Amino acid sequence: MLTHVEIALPLISIASDSAGDRIAMPGKKDTKKKFMIEVSGVYQTLPALWRIQSDDYSNRAKKAKNYDMLL
After folding, report:
1. Alpha-carbon torsion 5, 6, 8, 13, what sign?
2. Distance from the CA of 8 to the CA of which of 27, 37, 60, 64 falls in 20 to 30 A?
């Protein structure tokens, strides 16, 4: 059984398992950073949202569908 204990470090928190061993766990900032990297990766695959030269950029229905995919 893990007991979660928050530590005031910027990117990690510390948890202890049943044997009392300390385990580093990702913190909120690390989770947010991974989320933003993932969203950015998905955004890049949807050129209708950002590529002005794309024919789909002017297509409102395509953009709406892509925004739904992103969110």
Report:
1. positive
2. 37
